[in-house]
Amino acid sequence: MNSRRLSQVLKEYAAGPQLGECGMTDSESLRLRIARYVSTVLAPFSISLPLVMSVALYHSPDPGRALACALIALFFLSLGPLLYIVIGVHTGRLSDLDITRRTERLGPYLFSISSATVGLFVLQALHGPYNLMTLLIITIISGIVMLFITLWWKISVHASSMASAATLLTAMYGSAMLPLFLLLILVSWSRVVLRRHTVAQVTIGALLSILLTTLILKLRGV
């Protein structure tokens, strides 16, 4: 992939999902622009950095080592899957960075699950932070469940990722993290406004992720 094309693809990602504004009133156009911004800022890739760092540093006796493990986790959780999608858009296998077409999501799901699994093995070999490995386990199991649902129905990854992050951080840091669920509502709203998902798809994505994350946290004793 040449650098010019890569730059163009990343700019499209930063701009957020596009939806025509022709014939809209000023208020409708503003609402659409806000939804695009929210969808990009609260996208799974965007929230992964603060999430992984927060999990890795939680009660860590060695912050330096925890940060090193966090960078490893970020590579397998976010950077690798994002590069897979960028290359897929460049080669024409994927229609856009948002993977709007449900039928195109199988490959990215399989790659993301495989990448997170490799990351988990690497962290285990390095005796990485327990909570960070728990995050990878949540990602793998949730990804498998979401993959099977996506074979028939386009469940929301944005809502699922934000719901999992809010649930995990609230379990670890307490009620101070409850406002994160407001961001879940906000990103769900944006996905519906942008017509990427229905209300049912964002709702089920969020509730399923909350349930799976809570169950795994209980089993892991977090």
How would you describe the overall organization of this protein?
It is a single chain. Helices cover 75% and strands 0% of the residues. It is mainly α and 222 residues long. The model has no long low-confidence stretch (mean pLDDT 89). It has one domain. The protein contains nine helices and no strands.
Please write out the topology.
Layout: H1 3-15, H2 26-41, H3 44-57, H4 63-91, H5 106-125, H6 130-150, H7 157-173, H8 180-193, H9 199-220
Helix pairs in contact: 1-4, 2-8, 3-4, 3-7, 4-5, 5-6, 6-9, 7-8, 7-9, 8-9
Number of strands: 0
Number of separate domains: 1
Q: Helical stretch count?
A: 9
Distance between the termini: 42 Å
Structural class: mainly alpha
Instruction: Summarize the main sheet.
Output: none
Mean pLDDT: 89
Listing every helix as H and every strand as E from the N terminus to the C terminus, the arrangement reads HHHHHHHHH
Supply Rg: 17 Å
List the uncertain runs.
none
Overall 3D geometry? globular
Report helical residue fraction.
over 70%
Strand content: under 5%
Overview features:
9 helices, mainly alpha, single chain, 75% helix
In short:
This protein is mainly α and 222 residues long. It contains nine helices and no strands.
